[in-house]
Predict the structure.
Amino acid sequence: MGKKFIADYYDHYKPFDQLTTIGLETQDQLELSQNWKYHVRIDRLSKNKEGVYYICDYKTNSQLKAQEELDQDRQLAMYSLWVRQRYPDAKDVKLMWFFLAFDQEMISERNTEQLQKLKLDTESLIKEIEACENFPTEVNSLCNWCVYKSMCPAWKHDVELEAKTPKQFKDDDGVKLVDELAKLDSEKKITEDRIYQIKEDLIKFAQQKDLSVVFGTDNKATVKPYDKIEYPKTEEFVELLKKKGLFEELAVLNYSKFLSKILKREVDTDVLREIKTEQGWMVRLGKRKE
Ligand code: SF4
């Protein structure tokens, strides 16, 4: 794909005389109010003969972005503030994306009012972030690029382990606990499967010998039939239960659905007031690469 992107790009733009490149992978900071700074790293900064500057961003996305999305893009628009400050000769500044997989360029433009508003919005976002004291982890595909990984509760143990020798790794208390839990969990699954199979075999054994109790050394197993009931899961059935006055008596609250509604704040405040919350802990086992 890389080869194809480069070949298509080359064929499209040779002999590359549309724009003059002024900078590649620029490294600078845009000064904001209160000494805040916005990191500026432009893939390629170019200008044409008329003095219009182009902030070029190269994308290998497998999906083309919609124009509306690009018109809302913060990053390149913020870079354009830096370009206007740094190059006062700029007649105009355009934001340009090259979608290499589609051999297509897309452009977005911003006026002074839009940029002023974006700057204020960004500053207020910085203020909000700096005032925040609670940063819940949000594990995602960009974690490997995150500068806080070594401090992050979701990763710092892994980062610590990377620095350990194989012996220190094996002796780590966390590694020992997780490995033992994983071993027991897999044994539990094997045991549960085996219990199910033995019960099936016992039923067959009892049926063949016409037994209702099968004896072992210290224990006995009672084997007896029961009626499996299948409840209709239709609205009509629920209506029937209601009509017969059974619904109120028999229906139970669906707690997992209720929890999801609470988390999404879709529950009336009067109901929320009745709910007490206390912190609990859960442990979920998963694969390292999950
Ligand atoms: S490493 Fe931690 S802090 Fe960084 S993005 Fe991932 S979850 Fe968030």
Observations:
- Residues 175-273 form one domain.
- Strands lie at 20-24, 28-31, 37-40, 44-47, 52-59, 92-99, 104-108, 213-215, 220-222.
- The chain has two domains: 2-131, 175-273.
- The chain has a mean pLDDT of 94.
